[in-house]
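User: For documentation purposes, I need each entry recorded in a consistent format: the amino acid sequence on its own, followed directly by the corresponding structure tokens. There are two entries in this batch. Please keep commentary to a minimum and don't merge the entries.

Assistant: Recorded as requested. Entry 1:
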Amino acid sequence: MPTVSGADAPILLVDDEEQALQSYELTLRYGGHPNAVRCQDPRKAAAFVKTNDISLAVLDLCMPHLGGEELLALIRSARPDAPVIVVTGENEVETAVRCMRAGAADYLVKPVDPPRFMQAVTSALALHRGYLRLAQAGTAENAAVPGAFVHIVHASEQMSEVCRYIAAIAASREPVLITGETGVGKEMAAQAIHHVSRGRTPFVAVNAAGLDDAVFADSLFGHRKGAFTGAEARREGLIGKAEGGSLFLDEIGDLSHASQLKLLRLLEEREYFPVGADECRTTDARVIAATNRSLEELLDPARFRSDLFYRLRTHHIHLPSLRERPADVAPLSEHYLAKASAKFGKPFTAVPGDVAALLSAYDFPGNVRELRAMIFDAVARSGPQRLDADVFRAWTRATGPVDQTGQAGVRDRADGPCCPLPTLRQAEEELILRALEQAGGKQSEAARILGISRQALNKRLLTRKREPTA
């Protein structure tokens, strides 16, 4: 194989089937990308990336001598700025999820549709160019709009990588999918994406949970006067208000299949019809979607359209939970302490050592949102002299004193090997019950505490009631 480096780095094609390589290379040539390197032996491909720059790798999963997932890990390690598109002959959800979590930019199933292939290639190359711009600028903060990441308070490498990725996709107009547990800061990440890529243009957010198809279409696309009973005036719709800017769709995983189809057309054609209108309208608003559902759930065709999923995740950001990035607990605590102290007029300037130790030992099922609520509650309830550690102990259900290392904080939900962790369903039920208790039974207030819509909370409560108790 030739040695290639520099700005004109090639696209590396790896597949043990010669016919597949020929098809990929021909599609790339017709798409204006003649600079491709073909390789039938994955071992040679692994050696190639160690000494040569590449702009993109397209690799098959099932190959002799070296598996595609192992080769994916090698490429991501040797060339972290080069996106990888994985191709496989089997449409297996578990495999797709593993590859995405390992850093694959896209996942295609054979036989590969040429337009879909080129769409994946175009998006991946745009991401590569973004990383090159960052390398030339030095840091994500230098390359991006000043202040874009000021609200993403962090000290962890995981969140630094998120900031670098956001800066890298700034020039793209393609959709972005943000995944992560409830409370990790998905809307904050969406605002950073908007700030970097669209500046001072409109940022319009809508919570998709609990919206039926008619309400979703009317909210998003608007309607003309007289479109239905009660439509006494024209409604612009949120996509119209987001023109030139960004439309943020939160809890996208709860959309009905009918609404998913409407959204797919908007993404594919950049066109939409207001309710009751005969003429379509176009939009250049960038769509940013977020969900707390897992990738496995989104890849289940019974729940979510696969074509919409892959269209939304042209760019994908996964925000790790707070327990996965403990380095962020301290700076976030200080950040929210300063905000709460200013709001309540109390002179707290630093988190006491015993409180910091307790927080470092807590696993934060509610993530950053729970940390914020905990600190605001503690500041409001504490006297003017000192932040009350007992407020934090009550919140985390800790018992006994906490030393400076945090090792003595023991919650009544033990974490030892003899006491298994609760299931996700059990944890969700516990959070809902705690929120309802804190809100005095008021569902709207409980939904606010949990960071979800009233409709989403009501849906979860109805689901629990329908489940058998035996």
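Entry 2:
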Amino acid sequence: MTRILLRAHKSPFHSASATETISKRLIGSNVGNLMFSHASYRLLSTSGTELTTSKFENVDANEINERYDVAVVPLANAFRASLTDGVREMAGLFEKLTIPIVVLGVGAQGPVSGTFQSSDLDVEVTRFVRAVLERSPSIGVRGELTAQYLANLGFGAEHVDVIGCPSMFLRGPDFQITRKVDALTKYSNISLNVSPYRPLIGPISVDHALRYPNLMYTAQDQRTLGLMLTGEFRAPYEPPEGTPTNLNHPLIRDNRVRFCLDPTTWMDYLANFDFSFGTRIHGTIAALLAGTPGLILAHDSRTLELANYHDIPYRVLNSKLKKVDAIRLYEKADWTAAMTGHAERWDRMQAFLEKQGLRHVFLPGESPDAFDERLAAVDFPPPVQMGMRHDLAALYDLQRRIPELSAGLKRAEAELAAKKKPRSRTRRWLSRTKATLVRTVKRATPGRSSL
């Protein structure tokens, strides 16, 4: 029995509510993180394997060495400046492990040019890769841009395997995409995915919301889930104009946003659309795995290199892209190369797993049936939508009235402070205003009882 410790934010079989998902960070910052860990779990669920998931946070290296035979680490765009501390912490853990470490796809993030600035990150990535290579024959990366980045750090091709993203191998050698309709119309069922921090996606989302009445926003990031639960988009940055991050955006206002908490419900949901497009690479991959034609608006090196490696149709999203229209994107996209090249890419992934000493469910005598049957028995929550926990009308009322009530409250408090004997009328007004404000907040956000 091979005991594998798989890095994942949660087990594929754990059904969690939206509240639990956001409070325990079960998707990290993006539900896309579950897509590649889910695929990795299914891929490695052989008859002679015992899999355990872990976030690799606050773990005991000695316990890992004692309990497991191998650590498998599927990663996203981990090699980026904002995750320097995370790379450092993981490298520190790896240096304490004595078991093999299999990195099942990791990417570097930079501009679409693929030029990465030298920084403190380089030092930590070098340490990270050395720790992996001291315990395994090679490291798996997502694409050629990441391979070149590691080559610039001194890691040659003999130690770096380009394998893409494990999510694309959820079904092993099988990968088929069929156009459901010959051409889109303004009434087609279209799914849009959005990176709410990208300025250029804002006008696109508003334009398509107004022109395509059946278009839905399939959200992925934790902050948008927070917006759907509380009516507030909390972020350390000012959301770019037009992004669906407030209650006035037409997609939010008209309840045309859904959030799938698990890969299973995500793919089931996207199977109902004619076309999916947007800036989220795993939103596009989820659609493709659901059999729905998808296209990525590539906006950085991580999205571009995966699109290139897996031959996923894309357009580079920058100021030179004058017009984005779903009908035209669908008309010009071709999924032939994604399908015809999949067999070769699958062979490359198989060879990587064999080199690492790992078996998979598509080998002779193995099957993914046990995983699929166990998954089918889980009752996952339906996609989250606006108004599931709250009175949506109250959210709009709250947004409209709070500035007015708060301003009046401050004026009344100032008046009271300036008077030794405030008039009863002022005191009554102040009491009523406070009660109204508290009542409005309570009505729109149950459980929040104080200001």
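Summary note for entry 2:
The longest strand covers residues 2-7.
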